Amino acid sequence: MTRDTKGPQILISDRETGLPYSKGLMASQVMVTGLSPVRAYQVAEAIEDRLLDQGHPSVTSEELDRLALEVLEDLAGDRYAKNFVRWQEVEALDIPLVVLMGGTTGVGKSTIATQLAARLGIVRVVASDAVREVMRAMFSRELMPSLHASSFEAGAALREPPGRDAAIVGFREQTAAVAVGLQALIDRAALEGTSIVLEGAHVVPGFIDLSDWEDRILAVPVVITVEDEDMHRSHFVARWVDQEGRPASRYLAGFENIRRIQRYIKSQALSHGVHVVPNYDFDRSLAAVIDLVLEKATERAAQEHPAVVGGMPVREGGRG
Asked: Which pTM does this prediction carry?
């Protein structure tokens, strides 16, 4: 049970001007583990209760981190405690995190990307469609017709019908153009040292060469899919209900192309070693992406700061 908010404050002694412990800030840090905002705040409240029980007027950052780890193990289990340790290691990297989240239309990648950014404290989320809109303003329909159609309708905008799958040929042409803008955003993130989440149908493995930035960013590519056709189709009906001006009929009419593009993106992911997350359940999909980000970040931390990794061991016997 939480105590009176007007009770004594615990100062964090090694932070500037002795800042007091904040449940809100701690909850934000704990959300990185994959816990929901509500559960993260409950953990932050439990940490405050234990600090008050100890009766000390101040605590160091290291002591606070160890207490947070204990509370996470007790209330949430090993998985979340280990993710908390991983994130401490990640913060030592001092390079921006760039998450590249691809997937065909209607798989839920925008929602996952937004929540991922909130959990990881990333303030920049850019959709590839926004990049396409900017490029549309720069290049006329006559010059680049594929930019002026939706990803699943780009095949119809081709000047000459291709000898093979028009939907994929048009999508590839559009993706190659948008990739130029996405690469500029990555370059900017590397230059400024600012983390970013790039999401959209045009974030396709194989179209963005990350080798130029491999020493300056931590890139985590991932592809989101919906394997069940009926579930995927239902997303467009829900979108029609939730968002005026985006009738489901247009998406349903192009549904076969949307599915065809998913198969293409998935094949690109598999051939380039990019992780694929099937989105059957939002919370599980988000947790899977968070786990992937922390796994990649921990691998990078182990390469750059081997002495730091594993510095805060997780106790045995925690609940999973």
From this structure: 0.83
